Amino acid sequence: MARFSIAVIGGTGAEGSGLCVRWAAAGYPIIIGSRSPEKAQRVAQELRELLPPHSAPITGDANGPAAEAGQVVVLSVPYSAQEATLHQIRPGCQGKVLVTVVVPLKPPKVAQVWRPPAGSAAEEAQAQLGPNVRVVAAFQNVSAAHLKELDHPVDCDILVAGDDPEAKAVAMELARAAGMFPVDAGPLANASVPEGLTAVLIGINRQYRVRGSGIRITGIPRES
Questions:
Q1: Residue 26 is part of a domain; what is its CATH number?
Q2: Does residue 71 belong to any structural domain of this protein?
Q3: What is the distance between the alpha carbons of residues 176 and 39, in angstroms, rounded to a whole number?
Q4: How far is CA 86 from CA 11, 41, 51, 83, 185, in A?
Q5: Of 1, 29, 176, 220, which has the maximum CB count within 10 A?
């Protein structure tokens, strides 16, 4: 069964690259996007070396061409880079689903919840990209610590917030493909909650001296 291709903008970072490995191993062709196409290509080569045989390909390019090439776009950049990056990829995102992993953290107090003026990074992304892009927020609360270790289970549920049911279904498919359990968290206006939870989890990691704290939603039957 052919899988759609995914442009992971910011796929050279810790979480983005880990998701690339998981999705490529599950059969989704990956195009890593970076400000530097040379860096994207170098990281793509490094990630290919981690994959088992018969995985989907991972390639690299500059942000704009990567977004143009992907059938689905994933945004995994620091919040400080979101506006400039979205400006680069806006044309290539039109008519597509964009899954944003971005969390608005305000250094130096990154363990303290901070909300941007629009309410969430996801809502700001939707406003900047326009109505022809279906923005979904997901993967904010998963730690990057073990994502590249394909035999390591990811102990975290994925809250998925968005206004378009089909777009949310895409994000939920990607969560399952990466070995995680997706939970429909309602409209895009709710994205501020999983975004804020990331700051809480950073504080928990520090307090308990762990690397990969996550969340579980109880009371929902798990898929077999």
A1: 3.40.50.720
A2: yes
A3: 29
A4: 15, 21, 29, 5, 24
A5: 29
